Amino acid sequence: MTSAQDRLAGCRSALIKRGLPADAYEHGDFTTPGGLAATERLLDKNPDLDAIFVASDLMAVGALAVLKARGPAVPADVAVVGYDDAAVAAATDPPLTTVVNPIVDMARTAGVILLERMSGDRAPVPPTMFAPELVVRLSS
Q: Is CATH 3.40.50.2300 the classification given to domain 2-101?
C-alpha cells in the first residue's frame, strides 16, 4: 500500500534526521492480527525499544496486546503511537495517541478540483500536501 510505504519513509526520515537508528521496523497488514505479529517480531529483535510507531490504529491494538502480555507498561516503558484516529483509538487501554490526516480538507480540495474539471478547466493542478495532526492520548 502506498500509504504504508509513505508512513514508513516518513518515520525513517524523522529518525535519521535526529541521528537515531531507523532499522528497527517490521511490516504488517493494517489489521490487529498483523500488528500483533509484527510487534512480536519487532520486540524479539529489539527488546529494549522505548517507543513504537504503528502505521495504523488497528495494528496498534495488536501492539498494545503484545506489550501487555510481555509486561512493559505503556507508556512508562514503551510509548505507542498509531495512525488514522480510528474509533478504536480512544477505546484502547490506555487510549491510543495517534496521527490523523485532515480528511475533510482533503475531500473538499478533491471536490473543488473535480468541479473545476467538470466545468472544463483543464489547467494542471499541482500536488497538494496536507499536514497530519497528532492526537495525544495516554499511550505516549
A: yes
Domains of the chain: which residue ranges? Answer: 2-101
- CA 79 from centre of chain: 13
**CB count, 10 Å around CB of 17?**
9
Phi, psi of 74 (to 5 degrees): -105, 125
Distance between CA atoms of residues 20 and 31, nearest Å: 28
Write out the three cell numbers for 72: 512493559
Q: Is the pTM of this model over 0.90?
A: no
What are the distances in angstroms from CA 76 to CA 50, 51, 79, 96, 138? 9, 10, 7, 14, 10
pLDDT tens, 74-85? 999 999 999 999
Please check whether residue 26 is in contact with residue 38, taking contact to mean a CB–CB distance below 8 angstroms. Answer: yes
